[in-house]
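BUG-355 | component: ligand-complex export | severity: low

The export step for acetyl coenzyme *A jobs runs without errors, but we want the raw record kept on the ticket for reference. Input record follows.
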Amino acid sequence: MQYATITGWGKCLPPAVLTNHDLATFIETSDEWIKPRTGISQRHISHVDTSALASVAAQRALDAAGLTGADLDMIILATASPDTLIPNIASTVQANVGAHCAAFDINAACSGFLYGLGLASSQIRSGQCQKVLVIGAERLSFYLDWSRRETAVLFGDGAGAVILEATDKAEGVLGYELNNDPAGREILKAGFGTAMDRFDAASLDFYIQFDGQEIFKRAITGMGKLSKQVLAKCQLDKDDVDLVIPHQANERIIDTLVSRMKIDKDKAFVNIANYGNTSAATIPIAICDALEQGRIQPGQTILSCAFGAGLTSAAAVIKWGSRVTPLKTSQAQLPPCDKTGLELVKRAADYFCKR
Ligand code: ACO
């Protein structure tokens, strides 16, 4: 029997940082409001396109796996903020890493990476592919109305990637569950797309909007339900879980999720303080951070779950393999950035705040 195991991982955070204190210089907010309610202290703001973040994360993942782009059979890139809709940006990454294979984007919002991981593992388990690159990459700063404090403080930019490879060992993605609840389409959205009126300036006024409290509740029930389903599918119990890597939208959502599942809070990996919500990128970035911090050990059972616009939800059980260090140190880097986070958002902040 064929399994799909993670052999490489890489993240890319743009260097410029926007702190809660920076935000308080142009909207009425404060670190005292943001930190206790969300867990967020800062977020990264990108000076480059989503595909550039994705390409660096992808190259780092390939190096960690000891592979080159030419080894890949498929690239799946999860994003809701691509630099171009046509063509997809998986093709940009493909060109940058030198791959010759299938490449496509998927949009399942914050659940996108786990959707991609599930699809990739099925491609491998069916024998269709041997090596698949799965990326989550976002530049959500593009979608923000910087005068709206309820959303401006929550999101950040970044990318993460993993390499899945075929193996005979019973490890890797042991199971996954995907779902979508279209009844919740309207409670989390950014009206960007062909429904816009190209000849009406108001139509171009798109930005992320949501009902925070409704999302909060549905995120906990949605992720909880799929997490239980995937554990049952893999014939595992919550006590078999060594580490939970959840989507990072709000630290209080994560606390409530694990408490309801009766999983020890210390088993939940939380890194939202540094990045905010990077949507599809949160889980692969968290996998990289967990490895760097020694939180992932060989053979451990990891439960990962996510929730996002759609309303999508996803959960996966991953049995980590034997290697927790990269095979090769990557030289992949973004072009340098000579601006601070505040300088990068200044033009947009001035535009939105002075209207
Ligand atoms: N700074 C200061 N005050 C603020 C801010 C801010 N950034 N944002 C809102 N407020 C004010 C509101 O105006 C309101 O003031 P009022 O009482 O005078 O009317 C007050 O704070 C309370 O607002 P609430 O919206 O009730 O605050 P709440 O405690 O619900 O927290 C939050 C809001 C953090 C967004 C929370 O609802 C949440 O985390 N929701 C889920 C996360 C989410 O929706 N993420 C979006 C992506 S979805 C995803 O990734 C799955």
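Assignee comment: Attached the raw record above. The chain has a mean pLDDT of 96.
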